[in-house]
Amino acid sequence: MSEQIYKKRILETQKYLGEEDALILFASTHRYKNKTVEYKFRQDSDYFRLTGIEEEDGILFLKKDYSCHFSLPKDKEKEIWTGIRLGKEKIKESLGLSESFDLTEWDSKKEDLLTNTNTLFYFFGKEEKIDREMLSIISRLQMKLREGKFGPSRIEQPEFLHELRMIKTEEDLECIRKAVDITKKGFLKIMRRTKPEMYEYELEGILDSTYIRNGAWGGGYNHIVAGGKNAVILHYNTNREKLNHGDLILVDSGAEYGYFTADVTRCFPVGKKFSGAQKEIYELVLASQKNAISLTTAGRKFLDIHESTVRFLVEHLRKMKLLEGEVDSIIEKKEYMKFYPHKTGHWLGMDVHDVGRYFLKGESRPLRDGQITTVEPGLYFDPSDETIPVDFRGIGIRIEDDVLVNGMSPIVLTKEIPKEIDEIERLR
Predict the structure, then answer these.
(1) pTM of this structure
(2) Which of 290, 313, 256 is nearest to 400 (CA)?
């Protein structure tokens, strides 16, 4: 994205601040896998959204009419090892800031910056070390009341940043569509290449290599590649088991591009065809998903989609003799959770479980144009449950798409990734 986008976002954010408010955002820091090896670095989403900076350990400070940034100082010796740093001058110019400093100046300036500030907007709870630092600054400033100075009297989560992130801009959608396109390439490859006797990690490797070769950062989250009975484990990501003929495989994955991630789940046979029982469950889940997608419309409460999906599945599970009793009673007692233990969707964007509240003033929030939600019903049959017909035991099916709210006509961003049985079997 262009520098103008980040300048615009900073100015937009400042409009949410009062005369005695301040906002501080901290960049991510490197995490270490062991003593000398770092995990792959990924910038904090909120910080990146306002700055576009991918360097670690930066600090963005905003007031209504003032802005500054602290960054790692230029250091030729260190840059030889870890790459060229932007430096404070370039950051000030590119973001249109009032001032810009080296990170080494933070300790000497932080109290002055927060002096005579009433509300500090800061994501408390992300980093314990920084939380302690913020509380220490506030405590010291409270000792200066006799000098006519004061510090923040409260810390507030900057939820307005997350509300802004919920409504996707054209620039956001461009990144998401690219992430989806790369994800499609990965899924098509594994659907074509999967064979009995392969291992789950081989498919994970195909996804990773396809994503990266097509310009993605990698996966937006750990790939779930679950063959056979592993599919009943919702967040299975061990990905070590052999794939057996006659089993289904559940793959939940999404490429991340431009700090936006796709999130897709597909199920397909390890062999060439779905078995009768697999087909029966798959068609039920697919029908419930299509119904849920049709409800993903502006003005509808988010929770309505899940409640409608639960009722849809319960009605059909009763017909199949897998649940007994009245529909309302089954739902009230949550007996369906034996087969469907999770929600039908979640917000999607820069994070796979993206930011934004699901309830406002105690009520499920209405959907708005520009929001993206996953729609992902599923059914899971415990392989050890002898009350379940033997043909169903060990089957786990989830079908997930990414849906953009668009008036009364939801847009399925991931529609080109095959999910109809005949489409999938043609690829096999």
Answers:
(1) 0.95
(2) 290
